[in-house]
Amino acid sequence: MMDLNSLRQFLIVARLEHLSRAADELRVAQPSLSRTIARLERDLGAPLFDRSGRLRLNAAGHVFRAHVERALGELEAGRRAVAETVNEGAGSVRLASETFLTLTGPLAAYKRAHPSVELELHWSPAEDMARLLRARQVDLCVASQPIHAEEVETVRLFDEEVGVGVPLDHPLAGRTSLSVHELAGQPFVTARQGHWLRRLLDRLFAANGLTPRIVCESDEHGAIADLIVAGLGIGLVPSFARRKGEHVPLAWIPVDSPDCRRTVTVSWETGSHLSTAARQLRTTLTEWDWSAEEGVRRRA
User: Fold this and answer.
1) Sign of CA dihedral 160, 258, 234, 224
2) Left, alpha or beta for 209 (phi > 0: left; psi -120 to 50: alpha)?
3) Which stretches of 168-287 are assigned E, i.e. beta strand?
4) Which listed site, 140, 148, 205, 278, has its alpha carbon 20 to 30 Å from 288?
């Protein structure tokens, strides 16, 4: 018979597609975890993973994972609804985002207005956000690239230009605009594959039949401007980050392409019951004046 712990363990193995790493994350012995997965497969009457070479979730495993995520998500939603009732509406809210630098203003305002609410922040790539919402692992997602899922509702927060940041002593520093062809061959500092900044860079170059010369991929997205200033290369920098980090001594140059922009959105699962805390955070994000220099909430 399936128990909740076995289902939770299955989700970890399905996410990592690696038994030993899953066992380490769960802090259980690998043989025990293998027996748990084998028991689930026996109960279901079908294998959930392909085991030829690297462990891979198969078609049946993908179907089962979606149902398990939904079931455990509903249980978690019920637990949190009860907690909200008992705590007279204080509750908690879980927000996933690709970067939190953009959100420091509205998050600080939200905590000042609702100090008793527990605010959980989770970093996530955009491609995982629909799954996180469906599994009720988060309430809201803020992304700088589209979330492709029918069951997700989305509201645009702001749209902005993305330019090129170069050191002040760089030969391009005095330019008022640059074409993608002029950037070909330049060393780029950027984010890893999957991040919106990297996808934008790859898309801009591919549209011109080019490939960017990447010399540094950083997991610390807030450090990209500092790496540019240090002379490691040049890189794409959104307008918002430039305003938030005016102390960073770099030149910001527009790119001569209408596609060099990002659109930031907030999303939630269609038809889901959002807690009072989550609805209040959604309101804070959607009513924030993103065009302001320091970011202040719009007056009603």
Assistant:
1) positive
2) left
3) 187-191, 213-218, 235-238, 250-254, 261-269
4) 148
